[in-house]
Each structure stands twice: as C-alpha cells, then as structure tokens.
Amino acid sequence: MRIFRELLLLLLLYAGIASGVYGVWRLWPESKAKKDSPAQDDTSLLDRTEGKLRGLLRQEVTADANDEPVVKEGLRKLQERLNPALGKLSFPLEIYVIDSGTVNAVCLPGNIILVYSGLLRRLQSPEELAAIIAHETAHAMHRDPMQALKRELGLAALFAMVGGRGDGVTGRLMRRLVSSGFSRQQELAADEEGLRVLAASDIDPKALADALRRIRGEKDDDPAVLQYVSTHPGFDERVQLSEQASANWPGKARPIDLDWKQFRAQFRMLR
Predict the structure, then answer these.
(1) Could you tell me which of 95, 101, 102, 118 has the C-alpha nearest to residue 179?
(2) Going by C-beta distance under 8 Å and a sequence separation of 6 or more, which residues neighbour residue 216?
(3) Which positions of the chain have pLDDT values less than 50?
C-alpha cells in the first residue's frame, strides 16, 4: 500500500541505525535470552511502538476532530452500547469524527478510530454508524494496523520508531493511513467479528448491509465513494454475509438512544 511504501522510504535512516541497535538488543546476555523468548520480545516491541504511535496520533486527530458536546455524547452512547461485547483490548478505544467530505472510516494504531462526516452523509441511522464502528473496532481487536506496519517495515524500523525522535514526521505520515486499506481477507474477518459485536449489542447485524448499500449508492461514480470501495473490497460478499447473520440472529433489536438528525447537524457539510 502506498502509505506503507512511503513510510518505509522516509524511515530508511532510522532503520539503518536501528538494525544495529536491534541486533545488539537481540544478542543480549544469555540470562536475558532465557528470560524472554524471541516471540515475547517481538510482542513487546510491537506494544511499545503502538503505544508511542497512539500518543502521536491522538495529538494529530484531536486537533481536527469535532468536539461539539452533542457529537461527544453521541459517540459515547455508541461506544457504551458496543463496549460489553468487545472484551479486553490492547488499548482503550477512542472514536473521533472529522468534518470532511471524505467518505471513509479507518482504524489507526492504538485503537483510534476515525469517521469522516462524508461517510455520515450517506448513513441514515445510528445503528448504521454503529455497524461501521463495530467493523473498524474488529480491525483493532485483530491488531491489523500494527501487523500491516510490521509486515511492510520490519521490526528494525519499528524499533527505530520507538527510540527515534522523528515524532513530527511519523505523525504526519500516519495521518495518511486513511487512504490505505486492508486485504479482502482482513476485511471479511473484521466483518465477521463486527457482526458478532452487533448481535451481542442488541443491534440487528443487517445494519452493516444497510450501511454498505447506502455508501455505495446506485451506480455511484463519486471518486470519494470509489476510493472507499477500493480500500474495502468485496462489497457484495460483505452485504450477503451481513444479511445471512441477520437471518440467523435470534435476538431482538434495541434502538440506540441517539437523535440522528441533531447529531448530523453538528457537522458543517451536513447542515
């Protein structure tokens, strides 16, 4: 993906330095080697890196996020409904909405989820938004953002990000993650987990199918929508999966107590 290739090029200097540091770190005295296995070392490295990225990203995101009380309260209600079904996450979930024409929602490292008001313009209920958030939260549960970074950059470059001082560069680059996407397999796995979360939260799993249909529209040639489709592959398959989950769901839907019209009115482009 483009963002990861650019990130790799701009971090080559860090990677070069870190490769030596990382090598020494992995060749620590035998007593340490016995204490911590390579798998544990790798997991610890990823955790530390994600923690640092989380802090950097929060600084970037909060500067642009809508902070109206109505929006914050609406997101709190959505998160409160979903939280019991999420289990233990590596980091607390944080959801922000950006007032922008971009049609997208994205999960960033550190369990930070961004939703753009361009996507809200397509949705027609808080349940549909909850379905999108449940899907993105599933990416956080599977740690897809960090696994993608690990795959594209390697542990040496990630180690450099932990110990380096290029915070400003890193933060600006990570903002561009919104233009990248995950594989078809990752998207389907996130849908399956997200549908489970919806069902356990008394939300009809069909809400995801409804949201996807509204985003795509009828023969929509909007470049913003086409970008969303390209980074979230398999629309028809995903709609079918959602509808099948709904058909097999024995539960009863419980409405989310959120004034959708008032919530949407807080965004400049939706007024």
Answers:
(1) 102
(2) 225, 229, 235
(3) 1-35, 165, 169
Look-up of token digits 């009115």: 265
Q: What are phi and psi of 109, to 5 degrees?
A: -55, 145
Residue 172 tokens, joined: 């600006």
> What angle (nearest 5°) sits at the alpha carbon of residue 232, between those of residues 171 and 11?
30
Distance CA 58, CA 56 (A): 6
pLDDT digits (tens, 9 = 90+) for 30-68: 444 444 555 556 677 778 888 888 888 888 889 899 999
User: In this predicted model, what pLDDT tens digit does every residue of 145-161 receive, in sequence order?
Assistant: 888 777 777 766 766 76
Domain boundaries, the chain: 2-270
**SS3 readout for the chain:** CHHHHHHHHHCHHHHHHHHHHHHHHHCCCHHHHHHCCHHHHHHHHHHHHHHHHHHHHHHHHHHHECCCHHHHHHHHHHHHHHHHHCCCCCCCCEEEEECCCCCCEEEECCCEEEEEHHHHCCCCCHHHHHHHHHHHHHHHHHCHHHHHHHHHHCHHHHHHHHHCCCHHHHHHHHHHHHHCCCCHHHHHHHHHHHHHHHHHCCCCCHHHHHHHHHHHCCCCCCHHHHHHHHHCCCHHHHHHHHHHHHHCCCCCCCCCCCCHHHHHCCCHHHC
CA angle, residues 267, 72, 232, in degrees to nearest 5: 65
